[in-house]
Amino acid sequence: MDVVTLGESMVLFTPETTGYMRHADKYSSSIAGAESNLAIGLSRLGYNVSWISRLGDDEFGRKVISLIRGEGVETSQVQYDSTSPTGLYFKEILTDEETQVYYYRQNSAASNMIPADLNEEHISKAKFLYLTGITPALSETCYQTVKQAIKIARKHSLTIIFDPNLRRKLWTEERARKVLLELISMVDIVLPGIEEGKFLFGEEVPEKIAKCFYEQGAKLSVLKLGPEGAYYYSKKEDGYVLGPKVDNVVDPVGAGDGFAAGLVSGLLENLPIKEAVKKGTFTGALVIKVKGDIEGLPEKKRLESFMNEANKDDVYR
Ligand code: KDG
């Protein structure tokens, strides 16, 4: 097993028309969830990933599992909860530039995850544990489950990667700040954005934000800078990596998870950090060209040819 991850996945509904959803009468449906987005991304790039979760024992749960399993992700640790439903998520497209998300996930099956759901032997077989700040926001027991996963990963020397993924709709600012800072101090690699740097440390400059994460305990931080690429910082090295130009941004949601998939695949290949970050920026760029959180995640060959073309045509900035 290369990577193990845990978190909630939901059925995603997107109206076929732009504007307020009160006027929408047709929706397309897919699935979303930061951790399963990462898992699908890595699976498409040829890696073995296990996704741990709870789903409702309902039709939406079956939709989520068949899609994730169909993508080659290992799902032996997914449990069905007959007491609570699978979470739902609506993405309202107000204009081409403005998207709003609405969650229907309170008391969902995934929010019932408990530390005892985790199988130590299963987790111990992976090289990386991937977590996000969404899971601890779901419930107290999810927060405890994340901490238990970190404990197991530490015991078995997995590298722990954490995307703070601040979701203001899920918790209070005060609680989010406290828990995210605590978790950052327990992991090896963090993948924040500028907004999270501002929220957690009151800083806006990438170098300053990265230093704050370092002082908080992360050995490596990779800051996602959107169209500007990324900035990485560790004790040994730091630098900017420019991303490819993307002229047609169709849907930016999920870009961070795509970035993480590309980056982690580079780390699994033992690429120099700069090269791994570059893979992250190219994978994220492919995600935003397509509607949906997972639809644009590239297969290995597609990512390779996108990177080769960009180098050849010098569109890589
Ligand atoms: O990163 C994209 C995710 O935010 C999306 O897929 C849904 O997991 C999700 C969430 O909780 O917002």
Task: Characterise the protein shown here.
There is one protein chain. The chain has 317 residues and is α/β, with parallel strands linked by helices. Helix content is 38%, strand content 21%. The protein has 11 helices and 13 strands. It has a 9-stranded mixed beta sheet with strand order 5-4-1-8-9-10-11-12-13, sandwiched between helices. The chain has a 4-stranded mixed beta sheet with strand order 3-2-6-7. Strand 12 (230-234) and strand 13 form a beta hairpin. The chain is globular. The model has no long low-confidence stretch (mean pLDDT 95). Residues 32-34, 37, 89, 134, 167, 253-254, 256-257, 293 line the site of 2-keto-3-deoxygluconate.
> How many strand units?
13
Strand order across the biggest sheet?
A: 5-4-1-8-9-10-11-12-13
Q: Give the helix tally.
A: 11
Q: Based on helices, strands and strand pairing, what is the structural class?
A: alpha/beta
- Strand/helix succession: EEEHEHEEEHEHHEHEHHEEEHHH
**Uncertain residue ranges:** none
Question: What small molecules does this complex bind?
Answer: 2-keto-3-deoxygluconate
Q: Give the distance, in angstroms, between the N- and C-terminal Cα atoms.
A: 35 Å
Q: Which word captures the global form?
A: globular
**Describe the biggest sheet?**
9 strands, mixed
Percentage of β-strand residues: 15-25%
Radius of gyration: 18 Å
Question: Helicity, in percent?
Answer: 25-40%
Mean pLDDT comes to 95
